[in-house]
Amino acid sequence: MRTDVIVLGAGIVGLGLALNLQERGRSVVLVDRSGPGEGTSFGNAGLIQREAVMPYTFPDDPMTLIQAALNIRVDAYYQMSSLKAVAPWLYEYWRHSSDEKVAQSAAARAPLFEICLTEHDKLAAAAGATAQLRRGGWLKVFSKEKSLADEIGKVNELEAFGINAEICDHRKLSQMEPHLTGDLIGAVHWKDPYSLAEPLALSQAYAALFEKRGGKFVEGDARSLQQEGDGWSVETTDGRISARDCVVALGPWASDVTVPLGYDLPLGVKRGYHMHYRTKGNAMLNLPVLDGDTGYLIAPMTHGIRLTTGAEFAERDAPPSYVQLERAEPVARSIFPLGDRVDPEPWLGRRPCTPDMVPVMGPAPRHKGLWFTFAHAHHGLTLAGSAGRFMAELIVGETPFCDPAPYRVDRF
Fold first, then answer.
1. How confident is the model at residue 8 (pLDDT cuts 50, 70, 90)?
2. Cβ neighbours around 121 below 10 Å, total
3. How far apart (Å, rounded) are the C-alpha atoms in residues 365 and 334?
4. What residues does 138 pair with on adjacent strands?
């Protein structure tokens, strides 16, 4: 089989790219070992975060650092058996968390986040999935004065990026979410973002549009990628597929392809878990809610209230550890009446990140026709449309809507 572009990875990032390539007249084959959206894209918090311009950074508060070192926090946890392997990346992450480097990362991220909603609007409209993009934003709630004050500072800082937010006192919060309990003193309502009732359903809608336009999804192993003649080929269940251009959109599994080709990029993996719960009585949650003091999120979804954990630092393929979920669940129950667990076991996902929290996007420096787009740092869903447009513009030779330099593969 011959096509214009092979996209390795059928997560939401690969799907966004494939649709943008089709809009520019390219034929595309998506290759993955599982169905569209069934990997990392399956288990996220379901937020398209217009406000997330500033990167998540390594903590600098002394108490936070002490708690992290003692491994007693809810929002961050490390597996001792993986510490030696992940320590070099953590050091680079710390090094890129200075004020100067954070400002550089925010400037690089800003153009992608600025159009993230409108690009999803276009894709969802074409896919007949507009109803899946729920307006209303999300809430970050607090029980501590200092934490709330720090978040208000972020609100002021993000005004320069055109971000809309409302500061809510306890009364306003109670009106918005009457079934929240506990000693919450207030919240910040981030008003711009969209939320999803079912992240997998959006991926499936995009995949259906891709196939309706003539695209083909096939199962295959990206590690079979080979350079041949003037292009690339990969082995699939439908036989070997060839194309002039190939894009690695494999998220945390990108290194399985890039390292053998000589690109040993600093790709870290922040692992995370989720579980769905029934609610007690007639309790309802209107918007996704992030506990800003503890570091977990609860969100109303199709299968119940989804609780997602913070970041677990471990090797990508290390066995699961449910410590964070076990720590977060009782705290979540103290602010919302969660009922029984729904899922037979917690879901484990892997979020690929660079130390500067800026994605890797662009051509492979030493291989013609090979392109990279991964490491979107917690925001693959958010950036699927804007990153897809950016990469498609590069691949077809258009002038991209923003400067490619901050995302270049060789910046490290």
1. very high
2. 16
3. 52
4. 190
Residues 6+ apart with CB under 8 A from 321: 77, 79, 312, 314
165 pairs with which residues across the strands?
190
**Structural domain boundaries in the chain:** 1-58+96-133+196-267+354-412
Tell me the pLDDT tens digit for each residue of 333-384: 999 999 999 999 999 999 999 999 999 999 999 999 999 999 999 999 999 9
pLDDT the model gives residue 229? 87
Given phi > 0 = left and psi -120 to 50 = alpha, else beta, which region is 115?
A: alpha
pLDDT on residue 322: 97
How large is the average pLDDT for residues 198-202? Answer: 97
Record the pTM. 0.96
pLDDT at 327: 98
Closest by alpha carbon to 359, among 385, 393, 383, 389?
383
Kindly compute the dihedral angle of the four CA atoms of residues 398, 385, 296, 66, in this order, to the nearest 10 degrees.
0
Contact indicator for 225, 246 with CB cutoff of 8 Å: yes
Tokens 């003649």 appear where?
229
| E-state strands within 82-149 | 138-142
Helix axes 116-127, 380-396, angle to 10 degrees: 90
**Tokens at 89, concatenated:** 């990346």
Residue 281 has pLDDT above 90, yes or no: yes
Gap between the Cα atoms of 347 and 328, Å rounded: 15
What is the structure's pLDDT at 85?
A: 96
Residues 100, 102: Cα–Cα separation, whole Å: 6
Looking at the predicted structure, is the pLDDT value of residue 157 above 90? yes
Q: Which two tokens stand for residue 311?
A: 């970041």
- Residue 409's SS3 state is helix
Q: Which fold has domain 1-58+96-133+196-267+354-412?
A: FAD/NAD(P)-binding domain (3.50.50)
- DSSP β-ladder status, 311-313 and 268-279: antiparallel
